[in-house]
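#onboarding

Welcome to the new folks! Below is a worked example of what a typical request in this channel looks like: someone posts a single protein sequence, and someone else replies with the predicted structure as tokens. Don't worry about understanding the tokens yet, we'll cover that in week two.

Example request:
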Amino acid sequence: MLKYQETKEFQKDFKKLLKKFPTLKEDFQSNKQFRIELFHSQNIDSHSIFKIERVNNLKEYTFFKVKKFQCKSLKGKGANSGIRLIYAYLPTTQTIIFIEIYFKADQKKENPERIKSFINNNFLN
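Example response:
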């Protein structure tokens, strides 16, 4: 069973998007269960989770992006909603730490500074 955590920045992002997409809480839970859990716990690849290669992935953590995030508030879009989810995965403790969530129409790609800050706060203290 995976353990989940969220950074404060992620919580702010989520709250902001929730105003735009009222089904986001439910959609987030579904994506955790049917994408992230299956990918990391059972090695079932739905081709929606991608390793972020341009980040200096550490021995302890690997960083991923969920591209095919289904959102009911975006009717007719299905898995191509444009919502992106960035997280770090720590296999030794089966922990997922959500770092960023954004809507692609508002932001083209993940914020590399957010990932650097996560690394600095967790490994350079």
